[in-house]
Amino acid sequence: MPFEPGKTVRFPKSTCAACPLRARCTTSSHGRSVTIHPDEALLAELRERQHTPDGRAELRERVAVEHALAHVGHWQGRRARYLGTRKNLFDLRRVAVVHNLHIIARQAVTDSYQLAA
């Protein structure tokens, strides 16, 4: 079926009834509709770029950042603890400092510095 990005493509029920892959596609008796994202071409290009060596390197960097953000989100919680932006920003920064201290505590002690006991 022809389609335009950002529009919905509708497959009539007669087309779906004759399709051998219908059981894997839809259970609707009225046919199927598929919405194409307006930026589908860009998203496809980005998916291809992820499979290149440079794309894999960028993903490895992103994983580390997302892992750290997940830790902060786990410690802080899903909801704001206080009323007001200022107090919640302070709370976020407090949790970020605690996270950074955990990171520092896990690092091996070298000759150039030692952790305070």
In terms of DSSP E residues, the strand content is 5-15%
Report how far apart the termini are: 69 Å
Radius of gyration: 25 Å
Mean pLDDT score, rounded?
87
Helix share bin: 55-70%
Q: Strand order, main sheet: write it out.
A: 1-2
Multimeric status of the protein: single chain
Structure class: mainly alpha
Tell me, briefly, the overall form: elongated
Write down how many β-strands occur, each being a DSSP E stretch of 2 or more residues: 2
What does the largest sheet look like?
A: 2 strands, antiparallel
H/E order of the elements? EHHEHHH
Give the helix tally. 5
The parts where pLDDT drops under 50 for at least 5 residues are none
Q: In words, what does this structure look like?
A:
The chain is mainly α. It has helices at residues 13-18, 22-25, 40-50, 53-76, 85-106, and strands spanning 8-11, 32-35. A two-stranded antiparallel sheet has the order 1-2. Helix 4 (53-76) packs across helix 5. The protein is elongated and about 75 Å long.
Q: Any chance you could write out the topology, listing elements then pairs?
A:
Elements: E1 8-11, H1 13-18, H2 22-25, E2 32-35, H3 40-50, H4 53-76, H5 85-106
Antiparallel strand pairs: 1-2
Helix pairs in contact: 4-5
Tell me briefly what this model is.
With 117 residues, the protein is mostly helical. The protein is built from five helices and two strands.
